[in-house]
Amino acid sequence: MEIERLKTALEKVEDPRRTDRGHVLHKLEDILIIGLCTLVCNGSDFSDMEDFGREREEWLRNFLELPNGIPDSDTFRRIFERLNPKMLAESLYDWLANNRKEGSVIAVDGKTICGSGNHNHKAYHVVSAFVAENQVTLGEIVTEEKSNEITAVPELLELLEIKNNIVTADAMSCQKEIVRTITSKKADYVIALKRNQPGLLENVVLYFDSFREEIPLFSTDEKDHGRIEKTGIPFINRPVLAAGTERLEWPKVSGRGSHNCYKE
C-alpha cells in the first residue's frame, strides 16, 4: 500500500491545533503516520511513538518532511487526545478501499469478545468487515449484545466503500434493510438463508423440492483427519422467486444458490 495514498487520505483529517497562531512545529500527517506505523509494529503508547520515530528517522524521511525532526511523546499525546476519531477512521477506510480490487469479497461477521463482560455490562460483541484478499479488517463496530448485530451491520457498511465488491454474511444478516444498504452502495451480496426469513425460505425450498431431479449437484471429495468426506451441494443458476411483492422487497435477488447440502 502506497504511503503517498495514505498521506492524501489523511489530508481530510482536521488539525485540532490552532495553526493560525504560528506555533505549529510538526506537520499533522507526519504525526499521524508515525503513530500509525508504531501501532502496526506493536507499539502501545505515545512514548513508543517517539522511540519508533527516532529509531527510524532516516527511513521516515523518505516519505515524510519532518521539518523539525521527530515529535516528542507529549506532542503525540496532545494530538491523538484532541483528534476527531471518526474523521481519522473515515480517512483510513478510504485509504484501504483504494487498495482493493473490484470484485473483492468483504466478509461481515460478528464475534463476542470473551472476558469483556463484567457486573456492569454483558460481554461486548464486535461486528467487523474483513477482506480476505488483503488480509485486512476494513472496520469494526462494538455492540453490547449479539442481537444488536442486525442494526450494527448497516451502520458499519455505511462507513465503508464497497462499490463493485461482494459482501458475504451469515443468516443473521439476512435482513431487507441490510440488503438495501449493500445494493444502494453499488455492491452485490451472498447471504445465508435460514428460518429467520420463513417466507423467503419456504419459496426457495418449494422450488428445490419441485425440480430436484433437474438440479445439478456439485460435489467434492476431501481426505482429512483419517477419513474421506464427500460433500454434495444442489446448485442452480437461474431465478427461484416468482415476480411479485416478495421479490421486490429483496433488491437484486436472483435466487442463485444451493439447498440441502449433504455430507457422507
Q: What is the topological layout?
A:
Elements: H1 3-10, H2 28-40, H3 46-55, H4 57-60, H5 73-82, H6 85-97, E1 105-112, E2 125-131, E3 136-143, H7 149-159, E4 166-169, H8 176-184, E5 188-191, H9 198-210, E6 217-224, E7 227-236, H10 245-248, E8 257-258, E9 262-263
Parallel strand pairs: 1-4, 4-5
Antiparallel strand pairs: 1-2, 2-3, 6-7, 7-8, 7-9
Helix pairs in contact: 1-6, 2-3, 2-5, 3-5, 7-8
Task: Give a brief description.
By secondary structure, the protein is α+β, with helices and mostly antiparallel strands. Helices cover 36% and strands 20% of the residues. It has helices at residues 3-10, 28-40, 46-55, 57-60, 73-82, 85-97, 149-159, 176-184, 198-210, 245-248, and strands at residues 105-112, 125-131, 136-143, 166-169, 188-191, 217-224, 227-236, 257-258, 262-263.
